[in-house]
Design brief:
208 residues, four-stranded mixed sheet, alpha+beta
C-alpha cells in the first residue's frame, strides 16, 4: 500500500484544527488539577493509516474522538461533581487522588456485590455493614471519609444533583461538605454473564 504521508497528515491536521480536537484552555484555573494518562491518535492501528471520515486512529484501532477513554470518563465525573458543588455554593475544589481512587474501587466492588445479590442471605445486613465499615473507616492521607455515592453508570451532573436530595448523609455530603479536598472515582466491571448485560459495571465516588 502506498502511504502518502504528506497528503494524509495534511488532511488530518486540517480536520483537527477545524474541530479543535486537541484544544484545551491552559489558562482556565477555575477547574481543579488532576492527572490523566491518555493515548493520542496516530496512524499505526489496525484501521490506519486513513480510515474514512475519521481523524486518524489509535493503536487499538479505535477513533479516540469517537468514544471517551476510561481516564476521560473518570475525569468527567470529577468535573461534573465540582460543577454541581460550585452551583450549590460550595467553592472548595476537589482534586482527584490515586489513593482515594483505589479506595473507591473497593467501594464499587462492594456496591456491585450488593446489587448482584451476593449479600442476599445476610441477616439484617450485618455482613454488608461490616464490609462497608472496613472500607469507609480507613483514612487516606490522614483524612476521613466525607462523602460516598455508588451508581451503575458514570454519574452525570444530573445524577449528582439528585444526590443532594438523598435521605442519607453520604451522597449529599459529596456536594454540600466543604471539608473534603480529595476525590476518587472507582470503576469495577461486572463479569457475571447472567447480569452483565443489565449492569455492566459499577462506579463509586468518594471524597476525603
Amino acid at each position: 500500500m502506498n502511504y502518502d504521508y504528506a497528503k494524509i497528515e495534511a488532511k488530518w491536521h486540517k480536520y483537527w484544527q477545524e474541530h479543535n480536537t486537541f484544544y484545551t484552555d491552559v489558562w482556565d484555573f477555575s477547574k481543579p488539577k488532576y492527572y490523566v494518562l491518555d493515548m493520542f491518535p496516530y496512524p499505526s492501528g489496525p484501521s490506519a493509516p486513513d480510515a474514512p471520515d475519521k481523524p486518524g486512529s489509535s493503536e487499538t484501532g479505535k477513533d479516540p474522538t469517537d468514544e471517551k477513554t476510561e481516564a476521560q470518563k473518570v475525569a468527567a465525573v470529577v468535573e461534573a461533581l465540582n460543577t454541581v458543588r460550585k452551583n450549590n455554593g460550595n467553592n472548595t475544589p476537589l482534586t482527584m487522588d490515586a489513593e482515594v481512587c483505589a479506595m473507591a474501587e473497593k467501594m464499587a466492588k462492594l456496591q456491585l456485590d450488593w446489587l448482584l445479590g451476593k449479600y442476599g442471605t445476610d441477616p439484617n445486613g450485618k455482613r454488608y455493614t461490616k464490609d462497608w465499615n472496613d472500607i469507609s473507616q480507613l483514612p487516606v492521607k490522614g483524612k476521613k471519609l466525607v462523602g460516598v455515592g455508588g451508581y451503575a453508570a458514570y454519574p452525570t451532573e444530573s445524577v449528582i444533583r439528585g444526590w443532594v436530595k438523598d435521605t442519607g448523609k453520604w451522597k449529599p455530603a459529596l456536594v454540600t461538605s466543604t471539608e473534603a479536598t480529595l476525590v476518587g472515582v472507582g470503576v469495577v466491571q461486572n463479569t457475571d454473564p447472567a447480569t452483565m448485560k443489565n449492569c455492566p459495571f459499577m462506579v463509586a465516588v468518594m471524597t476525603y
